[in-house]
Amino acid sequence: MAKEKCEICGEELRRGFMDKIVGTRVKIKDGGSNKFYFVCPVCQKEHGNGLKAKLKG
Ligand SMILES: [Zn+2]
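Above are the sequence and the zinc ion SMILES. Below is the predicted complex in structure-token form.
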């Protein structure tokens, strides 16, 4: 099974209750489709509202 990594820092994401990923999944529109990125809690906290802009790079 593939392990999800934080899109920003590359840290492997841990799994918590019910095997749910600890962190957040960010949805970004890319043309006509949506792309999903996983971000760890640390980066989520650090970038806050700028998270999407950071992911678009
Ligand atoms: Zn991170």
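The first helix runs from residue 41 to 47.
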